[in-house]
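Blinded run. Sample ID left blank on purpose so nobody reads anything into the name before looking at the predicted structure. Input follows.
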Amino acid sequence: MLSLLVLDFGNTRLKAARFDGTNFVEEFNFPVSESETAIRELIGKYMPEFTAAVSVKSGTKVQLQQILADAGKQAPFIIDAMTRLPFENAYQSKTTLGMDRVMGVAGALKLVGDGPLLVIDAGTALTFDFLDGNNIYRGGGISPGLSMRFRALHEFTDQLPLITADENPALVGTDTASSIRSGVINGFDAEVSGIAERYMAHTQGRMKIVLTGGDAGFLRNRMEKSTFVSSNLLLHGIQSVFAFNHAE
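Blinded prediction complete.
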């Protein structure tokens, strides 16, 4: 069975996973500053046949090529805007489309099946990505994530404090802190639920919803309709795209 090391280079973290064939085996998480050492250790310990990666950082391909060459391994499979996908991409500006969004859709397609489906990634940014019933990626939306909303109120005003999230905020805030929590969290909930409902109506109720990102668990308890939550959706997406491009 083909062994694969998958790498997702973010701005601050490197997420990695081992796959045997299509089967997820184990996940790893490192600061980006430790990525080179971590990758060398993972390759030395597990000796994967192949390595596949996406990255928001320039220079990743050269870095990986050197690491793999030192280990006597094949060149890495780096996913970019020109990579073939297991679905049609109708996005108009493909070169500006974040690979995290693309990999989220690929992961959802692998884990829950054909569209229509909506991937909601509740991380630093809140993104919505829609795959229609013909498995054509149409695009979606981007807005600030939950923590970004709290920071924006603090950083762009003189008086408002930096507040953290609360699982059950009051609807009516009775002081500044509870008013911020009410506005940010209830507004966040209303945005996600409202947009999901509009997509659901657009697909006559046939759509599947997939949640991922750091605040996915927070949202899961607040949404009436959700079919799947995955903390490693993007890693599954990388594996899926790799397999699609290496099918015999």
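Unblinding after everyone has recorded impressions. The domain at 88-237 is CATH 3.30.420.40 (Nucleotidyltransferase; domain 5).
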